[in-house]
């Protein structure tokens, strides 16, 4: 099966409240809460050089702090990413946003290294609950508000909230850190207010999952490809891993490289660079909405395959222009691949298992977010960052070739139904 997007025949779970304009308003409220949470998760990205200067961090320690976040995400996805399928979306999202408030309070406590690690771990715990749940919630609300309609709006908004939020956080934090007093406190104060607004937004949105009187026996989330099309799920998971590997690079190592090797310490510039990568991904997802799904995947693979080597050239030559152009191209490719992956999994999964299927996808994606970044951090203890990035580039190109092979096998084993193909976008 190709990495198809959603067809109008995909059904939402039975809703405890009848379909109404409230579902349409709720769709945008959940998108806002999702965007806010994802933006908060990347606030520290442009601030890492400030923590490094204050506490004497190395690049390796930055990746350890980053790994704490990824560990939190993976733990949360395994333990709670799928639970909203039977207890309801709101009962997971509101506590998850509250965890982000706890993390913000830890950051505001002027943290030492152990508290900083704890703050990132708590952030990850909340995000792991949010990603799959919010994505499934948006799908439910969209389907309830526009039954039988195209799912392009869901795909664009869900991926834009996810990826756009990841880029918006560093942009806001970078400018606040550059031009406002207390650079290690002000960004978190701003997001405390925004997260409170997000909690209110979730609270007033209609629930879309009927809570089961007899709940299934709890067990942690398992990574399973048994969601309607095994080949399609594996291809989507591989695409998500490759996409998140690029995003992990820019939220962990890249700001420190720009400040150090390129001698450009501006926090605002660091935020702009990270935003440009994620913003490019979000814009590409929107502009290519009418392309057929296979064309999106091929374009995404090509953009990543060209972008990361160009970024590497910028690192070797200390050229900010090449570094930025390569990063934006790689971000565009990652965004397209991730959009295709999310659309595929949301379409193939049964409504009662949609949260679980997406949780498995994001679990694999966040392994891609953390493992390469931590690997680069460990490597920098023995070799230069540029040399480590050279190895990363080679491994990523091999990974992208693997995604292409999986995709071709998927399209060779099963063709999308005609109705789904007409609405793929």
Secondary-structure blueprint of this entry?
Blueprint: H1 21-41, H2 48-55, H3 59-80, H4 84-87, H5 90-108, H6 113-145, H7 152-179, H8 186-203, H9 230-252, H10 254-260, H11 267-287, H12 293-317, H13 320-348, H14 354-379, H15 385-413, H16 418-423
Helix pairs in contact: 1-6, 1-7, 1-8, 3-6, 3-14, 5-6, 5-8, 6-7, 6-14, 7-11, 7-13, 9-13, 9-14, 9-15, 10-11, 11-13, 12-13, 12-15, 13-14, 14-15
Compressed to H and E, one letter per element, the order equals HHHHHHHHHHHHHHHH
- Average pLDDT figure: 82
User: What would the CATH topology be?
Assistant: Growth Hormone, Chain: A
State the helical fraction.
over 70%
Helix count from the secondary structure assignment = 16
Enumerate the spans where pLDDT stays under 50 for 5 or more consecutive residues.
1-18, 414-425
Amount of beta strand: under 5%
Q: Can you tell me the CATH class?
A: Mainly Alpha
How far the N terminus sits from the C terminus, by CA atoms, comes to 15 Å
Rg over CA atoms, rounded to whole Å, is 20 Å
| Global geometry | globular
How many strands appear in the DSSP assignment? 0
User: What is the CATH superfamily label?
Assistant: MFS general substrate transporter like domains
Class from helix and strand fractions: mainly alpha
CATH architecture: Up-down Bundle
Q: How many discrete domains?
A: 1
Largest sheet: none
Task: Please provide a written account of the structure.
The protein has 425 residues and is an all-alpha fold. The protein has one domain (21-209, 225-423): Growth Hormone, Chain: A (Up-down Bundle). The protein has 16 helices and no strands. The chain has helices at residues 21-41, 48-55, 59-80, 84-87, 90-108, 113-145, 152-179, 186-203, 230-252, 254-260, 267-287, 293-317, 320-348, 354-379, 385-413, 418-423. Helix 5 (90-108) packs antiparallel against helix 8. The longest helix has 33 residues, at 113-145. The two termini are 15 Å apart.
């Amino acid at each position: 099966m190709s990495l198809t997007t959603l067809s109008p025949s995909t059904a939402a779970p039975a809703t405890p409240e009848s379909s109404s304009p409230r579902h349409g308003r709720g769709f945008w409220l959940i998108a806002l809460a999702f965007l806010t949470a994802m933006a908060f998760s990347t606030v520290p990205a442009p601030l890492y050089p400030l923590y490094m200067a204050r506490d004497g961090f190395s690049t390796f320690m930055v990746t350890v702090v980053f790994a704490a976040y990824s560990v939190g995400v993976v733990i949360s996805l395994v333990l709670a990413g799928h639970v909203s399928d039977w207890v309801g979306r709101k009962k997971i999202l509101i506590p998850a946003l509250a965890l982000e408030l706890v993390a913000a309070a830890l950051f505001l406590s002027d943290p030492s290294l152990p508290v900083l690690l704890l703050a990132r771990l708590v952030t990850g715990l909340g995000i792991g609950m949010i990603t799959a749940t919010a994505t499934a919630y948006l799908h439910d609300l969209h389907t309830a508000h526009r039954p039988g309609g195209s799912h392009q709006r869901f795909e664009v908004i869900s991926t834009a909230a996810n990826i756009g939020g990841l880029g918006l956080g560093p942009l806001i934090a970078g400018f606040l850190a550059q031009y406002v007093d207390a650079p290690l406190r002000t960004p978190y104060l701003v997001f405390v207010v925004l997260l409170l607004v997000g909690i209110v937004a979730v609270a007033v949105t209609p629930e879309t999952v009927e809570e089961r009187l007899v709940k299934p026996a709890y067990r942690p989330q398992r990574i399973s490809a048994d969601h309607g099309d095994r080949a399609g799920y594996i291809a989507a998971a591989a695409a998500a891993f490759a996409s998140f590997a690029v995003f992990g690079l820019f939220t962990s190592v890249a700001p420190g490289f720009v400040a150090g090797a390129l001698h450009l310490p501006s926090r605002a510039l660091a935020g702009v660079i990270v935003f440009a990568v994620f913003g490019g991904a979000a814009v590409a997802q929107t502009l290519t909405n009418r392309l057929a799904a296979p064309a999106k995947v091929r374009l995404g693979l090509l953009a990543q395959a060209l972008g990361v080597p160009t970024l590497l050239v910028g690192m070797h030559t200390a050229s900010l222009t090449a570094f930025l152009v390569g990063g934006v191209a790689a971000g565009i490719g990652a965004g397209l691949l991730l959009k295709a992956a999310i659309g595929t999994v949301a379409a193939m999964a049964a409504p009662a298992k949609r949260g679980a299927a997406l949780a498995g996808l994001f679990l694999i994606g966040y392994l891609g977010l953390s493992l390469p970044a931590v690997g680069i951090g460990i490597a920098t203890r023995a070799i230069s960052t540029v040399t480590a990035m050279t190895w990363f580039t080679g491994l990523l190109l091999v990974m992208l070739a693997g995604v292409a092979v999986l995709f071709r096998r998927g399209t060779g084993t099963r063709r999308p139904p005609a109705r789904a193909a007409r609405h793929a976008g």
